[in-house]
Amino acid sequence: MRLFFAVELPTDVQSALGKLRPAESGDYRWPDPSLLHLTLAFLGEQPEERLGVLETVAAAAARAAAPGWLKLGEPGSFGPKRAPRVLWVGLDGDIASLNALQSQLDRRLRETGFAIEDRAFSPHITLARRRDKARAGSLEGWPPRNLQKAAFEMDHLTLFQSRLSPRGPTYIPLLALPLGPTEH
Length: 184
Description:
- The chain has 3 helices and 9 strands.
- The longest helix is centred in the middle third of the chain and has 17 residues, at about 95-110.
- By secondary structure, the protein is an alpha+beta fold.
- Strand 4 and strand 5 form a beta hairpin.
- Helix 2 runs antiparallel to helix 3.
- It has a 5-stranded antiparallel beta sheet. Strands 3-1-8-9 form a 4-stranded antiparallel beta sheet.
- The protein is about 20% helix and about 35% strand.
């Protein structure tokens, strides 16, 4: 099973992000806006038998984290300015709570033997990835100037399964846990 942990985005935020796609954007793969999310940890292929451990890890990280409000920040890119590899939108708002959630999750995943990337967490929402056979040059209209700074509540942690197909990925939520201490 191909798995990742994420913060889900409400449909109005996904819709606002979907409007950022430039008219001429064939050199990039743009997912359907309904698939946009904030990745906290990508786990790659995992055996189904590890789901119980992941549920325990997620429950502990979610309980230790506080809900918060986030809003869309500035657009950016990874890679060379003339031919960026990844187009993204940053986040503003309660970044301390977001970082604490990601840190808790990362630590607990490592403690239970999951291989996690060693690079620092950079809060962003990936919008598009450059195609392997893209033309040279930068994408006209990027970065956008019409970004709606939509706000949303970060109130739960979701474990997704990603199924890949020629038509693109499908994300299936396997587990969604509220953030903060649970009441008994």
